[in-house]
Design brief:
The chain has about 425 residues and is α+β, with helices and mostly antiparallel strands. Helix content is about 35%, strand content about 20%. The chain contains 13 helices and 12 strands. It has a 6-stranded antiparallel β-sheet with strand order 2-3-6-7-1-8, with helices on both faces. It has a 4-stranded antiparallel β-sheet with strand order 10-9-11-12, with helices on one face. A two-stranded antiparallel sheet has the order 4-5. A hairpin with a 4-residue loop joins strand 2 (about 185-195) and strand 3. The two termini are about 25 Å apart.
Length: about 425
């Protein structure tokens, strides 16, 4: 279980709805709000109408929250912001991954209106699961990003949960992650199971450099020195011997994190081997986005009007090395970058010269749901190194995008991916 209050929320990403208590008030029905406020011992006036019409209820609820004492307001605002962060499909998946009794939670979820209500319900009724889910989600959001690394240790031992072993790991990490000169940095380690994907997560919190904050207090303003925690995490898959790590610092952080974890919690000395990150073969896009004849993807069934390559970054294969960006307007009626480069550069077309495609943006345009409305657009953002925005998509969109990328032979399943889902 994650240490209470230690998980810090990151700034909302582009595309993520910013937290607004009014939105949450409208999304969650009165019965769940009643359970939440009661669990926090919030005094509710007898005149408060729990059966009011939806808009009237949400307005009255916000007015009630704004009348609370400042300390109560601050506590509830922080808790509701945490609930908002888990009110997504990835957040719900993290909750189920964190629960050792997911059948009961799934039964509750079936009775609830939406993800916002489900997240708040878990906060009230399954608080330990909620805190663990926050740590799992924080790791999940880092997978596939620059701070992520996947390695193989070829060990399939159970993870020790003994206090002495965890304390040994904390001491070893504190020594490695502290500056050569200066005091030891505090370190805290949590171990939790990921029940759905079969992994064991090691969440590491290390004391960062002191932070001098300016804050408001009753007497006015003051400066306060804090000791913030920076986050690292490791997930070990015993079935395959694969270890994923997320954290800033590069190899000097990822390598000792894996070796010290194995030494203290697996009782093994290991030499981690890099697992080649699945890369995208973006050069295969230079011939267009037509699906091969043997593809079983029915674009019309998915409501797709058009797919085009909207932006690309090309890198020369000869000296002097340089990059060129080619982009076209976002409007669906515009040409793709392949046509634009061919039309303007003719014999010097970048896509037919000594250049590799290192980044690409593919836009998928869907037919409008209603006459007179604009159809939605799904953008697939890819880098040759394997970084993409697939993990930020809705589940169904991600599945469609992955099928298309495989149909174009831009991506292929790897042995590691197959081992993790076996």
């Amino acid at each position: 279980m994650a240490a209470p209050g230690i998980v810090r929320l990151k700034k909302e990403k582009k595309g993520m709805t910013a937290f607004n208590p009014r939105h949450l008030a409208r999304q969650v029905p009165a019965t769940t709000w009643q359970a939440y406020l009661s669990s926090r011992s919030i005094a509710i006036p007898e005149s408060f109408d729990w059966n009011a019409e939806e808009k009237a209820f949400s307005d009255a609820l916000i007015a009630l929250l704004e009348e609370l004492e400042p300390d109560q307001q601050a506590l509830l605002h922080a808790e509701l912001r945490h609930a908002h962060a888990l009110a997504t499909q990835k957040g719900i998946d993290a909750i189920l991954n964190a629960s050792d009794n997911d059948a009961a939670i799934r039964e509750d979820f079936g009775k609830l209106r939406n993800h916002a209500e489900r997240a708040l319900w878990v906060l009230v009724n399954w608080p330990n699961t909620f805190m663990t889910a926050e740590a799992l989600l924080q790791f999940d959001l880092g997978v596939g990003k620059r701070s992520w690394k996947r390695q193989a240790i070829k060990v399939t031992e159970p993870v020790s949960r003994e206090a002495a072993d965890i304390e040994g790991l904390q001491a070893a990490l504190s020594e490695v992650l502290s500056k050569r000169k200066g005091p030891r940095r505090a370190c805290h380690v949590d171990v939790c199971d990921r029940h759905l994907d079969g992994g064991v997560q090691i969440s590491v919190y290390v004391e960062d450099d002191p932070n001098d904050l300016v804050e408001f207090v009753e007497e006015g303003m003051r400066r306060r020195t804090t000791r913030p925690a920076t986050n690292l995490a490791l997930v070990y898959f015993p079935a395959s011997g694969i270890v994923d790590t997320v954290g800033r610092g590069g190899a000097k952080v990822h390598q000792p994190l894996v070796t010290l974890f194995a030494r203290h919690l697996l009782k093994q000395e290991v030499k981690p081997e890099a697992v080649k990150q699945p890369m995208f073969y973006l050069n295969r896009l230079r011939h267009g986005l037509d699906l091969p004849e043997d593809s079983d993807i029915d674009l019309a069934a998915h409501g797709i009007d058009r797919i085009r390559l909207r932006r690309a970054r090309l890198r020369s294969t000869r000296a002097p090395i340089c990059d060129f960006w080619v982009g076209v307007p976002a409007d669906q009626a515009e040409h793709c970058v392949l046509a634009a480069s061919s039309a303007h550069l003719k014999d010097h077309d970048l896509f037919r010269g000594p250049f590799n495609i290192v980044e690409a943006l593919i836009s998928i345009y869907f037919a409008p749901a209603e006459v007179g409305k604009r159809g939605r657009v799904l953008n697939i953002d890819l880098k040759q190194s394997g970084i993409s925005n697939l993990q930020d998509m809705a589940e169904e969109d991600a599945k469609l995008a992955e099928r298309l990328l495989r149909a174009w032979r831009v991506s292929e399943p790897t042995e590691v991916e197959l081992a993790l889902v076996a």
